[in-house]
Amino acid sequence: MAVGEEEVEIVTARTDKRQYRRVVLKNSLEVLLISDPDTDKCAASMAVSVGSFSDPEGLEGLAHFLEHMLFYASEKYPLEDSYSKFITEHGGSTNAFTASEHTNYYFDVNVDSFEEALDRLFFIKPLMSADATMREIKAVDSENQKNLLSDAWRMNQLQKHLSEKSHPYHKFGTGNWDTLGVRPGARGLDTRDELIKFYKEHYSANLMHLVVYSKENLDKIESMVEEKFCDIRNTDKDCLHITGQPCTSEHLQILVKTVPIKQGHKLRVTWPITPEIRHYKEGPSRYLGHLIGHEGEGSLFYVLKTLGRSS
Question: Boundaries of each Peptidase M16 C-terminal domain copy (predicted)?
Fold first, then answer.
């Protein structure tokens, strides 16, 4: 039985026929179970509270590199890339992304293949082979090369570059051949050793949150999840807490003019706000976004558009 079962909550909204249950496994992994008897696809999403802010100095992009490596194989399923292949062959799709403070892995698949797909999630004894290491560093580098042709990615990295150097926001989070191959090698570091060390240090069950969406009833889903995920290590790792601000008043007064890859003109104004997570139910940013983005008469958009027409 899962730890915290007394906290189980089942919710059925008036317009929502799905059932929900929150459980905490004995290894402190938090899980949200969703039962939908009418679905023709099942899905799962695992969020880990570790991202590029946790990259070691001199190994920029290591968290993102780990995201790539976890797709390859595990002791139970040692054939390389069998996870992605299984999902694709059974009508589904899978992907992942690394953000500043968390990494997310997710997939959807046909109903009759869901249990095996869930079993193939790669958090228990992953194989991070030496052969795959160099290939995936090149894959990360290729991804970065693609981003260099994207104005959005270029502007994002430029903004990070113009922030406080002592704050992790300043880091280059994607990684490339230089940060994951050349520089570590010059310092006598083995990137694969550092990768395994990073995984063991940061990937702890108490920092993971899993959502499972299935056609089965809640009891069946809970039993399945408990069987497949209770063996994930829990090292009671503390979640990373960032202090200080990425931008001082000096950084907020910088005006940058850039030449884009694609032809066009764009004005981008950026400023920090208090983290909205403390007020997620009210969603104040939505109200502000609506006011700023309003296009009616008297709005900022209306004024700028009028000025553009009169010039």
Answer: 191-305
- Catalytic residue list: 67, 136
Are the CB atoms for 58 and 181 separated by under 8 Å? no
Instruction: Classify each residue of 277-307 as buried b or exposed e, where b means 16 or more C-beta atoms within 10 Å of its C-beta.
Output: eeeeeeeeeeeeeeeeeeeeeeeeeeeeeee
Q: Residue 234 contacts by C-beta under 8 Å, 6 or more apart in sequence?
A: 27, 28, 29, 204, 205, 206
Domains and CATH numbers, the chain: 5-229 (3.30.830.10), 251-310 (no CATH)
Structure tokens belonging to residue 210: 């899993």
d(CA 295, CA 302): 6
Helices marked H in 90-163: 114-119, 130-147, 151-161
Q: Phi and psi of 135, rounded to 5°?
A: -65, -40
Q: Which tokens is 38 given?
A: 């009418």
Residues 242-295 have pLDDT tens digits of 888 899 888 888 899 999 999 888 888 888 888 788 888 888 888 888 888 899
As a whole number of angstroms, the distance between CA 235 and CA 276 comes to 29
Q: Is 5 a residue whose pLDDT tops 50? A: no
Q: Taking Cα atoms as reference points, which of 103, 63, 242, 275 lies closest to residue 164? A: 242
3-state DSSP assignment of residue 34: strand
